Amino acid sequence: MLLERIYDEDLAQASYLIGCQRSGEAVVVDPRRDIGAYLDLAGKHGMRIVAVTETHIHADYLSGTRELAAHTGATAYVSDEGGPDWTYGAGFDTAVRMKHGHQITLGNVTLEAVHTPGHTPEHLSFLITDGAQTNEPGYMLTGDFVFVGDVGRPDLLDEAAGGVDTRFAGAHALFASLRDHFLTLPDYVQVLPAHGSGSACGKALGAIAASTVGYERRFSWWGSYLANDDEQGFVEALLSDQPDAHAYFARMKTQNRVGPAVIGELPTLSEYTTAELLVALAEDRVIFVDTRHHSQVHEGTVARSLNVPGEAKAATYGSWVYDPETEFRPLVLLADSRAAAERIRDHLIRVGIDNVQGFITTIEGLSLVRPKTVAPDRLGQIDRALLLDVRNRTEFAAGHIPGADQMSGGRVMWHTDGLPETGTIVTYCQSGVRNSVTASALRRAGYDIAELEGSYAAWSALPDATRPAA
To answer: Could you tell me which residue ranges the Rhodanese domain spans (predicted)?
Structure first.
């Protein structure tokens, strides 16, 4: 048996390729939408991708199940659990619908679907058996059910998908899934989750790639609640102190349920000259995306540009500032090369931002402006309408600048009704990265923004005698 983990640091998301080396057949579980990594990996091992599936209707990225099935001719498999409100839509009409106990067989290898509701009602996990070695499962792909050190949060349907108090039923269902379908497994069964540290799908995810049933039973925060059959204590602990859910999650939920559009072969990106980009910007036909670090952006950037720094977190930050359902102007990226621009485009495709049109390799010759900033020791001297902390609410609770309001960067552009229409808004995060991303989108929307230089870290480092109170 072959089992490979493909990890996306941007979204802290894991997908898996499992194959039988005897038959040369493979299945991909929880693929993202830029499918090159799976095709390359299968080719490296001389395998054919004949099946593709997912653990549930994802909220944090756009599923690549349809994309990969269309490209390879593989059979798609999706959950048929959870009731009519959680049935996959028309985009999955040709997919096999799986109930609890359904098996996908690839030569000697078997994946058995286990209905593990809680994070979502339709959620499936997969028990993997290597038939060449044993007739007992040795691995469980847990999706967003069990993470290393944590479990999937059941409140995302309320936080991002318009649900009303679904978190309570989800939390109780999660307790039952742990009791009935996880802790009944042998301690040696390896746990392979769909997310790692940094994902918003849980609150205490570990950075280690895998765990075991026995380790989670003994050392996870929730293990003692299950051992003592303390369901109410588990529910209360699970629902407390969850981080903010990004607003784009609602769009992902809807599109993943209906069926994400299949992209197929991507168009060639246009390389803009300075003159061409100046005309396109003047005519408001494109949006310029400055991909540099915020310290460079503050030295001068294109007016009304979006700051989506680098390749590492382009999907995360792009989804904060660009909504493809309301904004139709194509994007032009600042990138060192065509290859770099294509990598950034791949990241954006993962969250359904499909209209990257081109790139330019320099800002030389473009009209530049310096974003407004304010030094931490002068914060008390600026006339402002709002001091806005764009960190997560758990960070805000741990310490913030007195007088600040909190709204995380992943939610601001969907809740501008909570912002003053006139006056200066001073924004900050922890070190400045998230602040620059959010501030760029607010400026583009017409708000008067001043970024706090060095953000909360710089303000906190001031001597008490010089630190402004607000």
So the answer is: 381-468
Degrees (nearest 5) of the Cα angle 432, 418, 249?
A: 70
CA distance 19 to 101: 20
* CATH class of the 373-461 domain in this structure: alpha beta
Rounded-to-integer distance, Cα 119 and Cα 249, Å = 14
Q: What is the pLDDT, as a whole number, of residue 242?
A: 85
Nearest residue to 63 (alpha-carbon basis) of 73, 50, 78: 78
Contact 123, 115 (CB under 8 A): yes
CATH number of 270-369: 3.40.250.10
- On the question of pLDDT at 53 being above 70, the answer is yes
Q: Sheet holding 190-193: strands in order across?
A: 103-106, 109-115, 124-130, 139-143, 190-193, 211-212
- How many angstroms separate the Cα of 427 from the Cα of each of 112, 293, 412? 49, 17, 11
pLDDT at 283: 97
Strand partners, 3: 18
Alpha-carbon separation of residue 395 from 157, 398, 407 (angstroms): 22, 5, 11
Q: How far is CA 291 from CA 10, 294, 331, 364, in A?
A: 15, 9, 12, 15
Digit-coded pLDDT (tens) for 379-428: 999 999 999 999 999 999 999 999 999 999 999 999 999 999 999 999 99
Domain spans of the chain, in order of start: 2-258, 270-369, 373-461
Contact 51, 128 (CB under 8 A): no
* pTM over 0.85, yes/no: yes
* Residue 283 burial class via C-beta count within 10 angstroms: exposed 0-12, middle 13-18, buried 19 and up: exposed
Q: Left if phi > 0, otherwise alpha if psi is -120 to 50, otherwise beta: which for 94?
A: alpha
Tell me whether domains 270-369 and 373-461 share a fold.
Answer: yes
